[in-house]
Amino acid sequence: MRLLVPRAGRRSLFYGVGLMKSWTPSGAMAAPVEITSTNVQRGDVIQIGGLPCRVADLFQLPRGAKRLLFESGELLTIHPRTRLVAVRVLRRW
């Protein structure tokens, strides 16, 4: 599976998303991962309604749920049984 990752300083490669900040350095590797409320991280990119949304912040809720705040300002609440596919940039030094 080949994933398109925008390079630093360029507009997003996804259609209709011009406001998303450049988020990966040139040549960074990205991998699809299955996420739940227990393993979601800041920086994960989740495709919702055909548009990529990058997680900017997380809020812990009762019973293991989390509320995700995206860079666009939108919110998404997921519970422990919610399973989503996201793209995570592999950070190797």
For the structure shown, list the relevant keywords.
single chain, 93 residues, 6 strands
How would you portray this structure in words?
The structure is a single chain. This protein is mainly beta and 93 residues long. It has no helices and 6 strands. Strands 1-6-2-3-4-5 form a 6-stranded antiparallel sheet, with no helix packed on it. The N terminus is likely disordered.
Task: List the SSEs and their pairings.
Layout: E1 30-35, E2 45-48, E3 51-60, E4 66-70, E5 75-78, E6 84-89
Antiparallel strand pairs: 1-6, 2-3, 2-6, 3-4, 4-5
Counting DSSP H or I runs of 4 or more residues, the number of helices is 0
Low-confidence stretches: 1-19
Total number of β-strand segments?
Answer: 6
Helicity, as a percent range? under 10%
Please report the distance between the alpha carbons of the first and last residues: 24 Å
Apparent shape: globular
How much of the sequence lies in strands comes to 35-45%
Q: Compute the CA-based radius of gyration.
A: 13 Å
Order of secondary-structure elements: EEEEEE
Average pLDDT metric: 77
Major sheet size, sense and barrel closure: 6 strands, antiparallel
- Going across the major beta sheet, what is the strand order? 1-6-2-3-4-5
Structural class: mainly beta
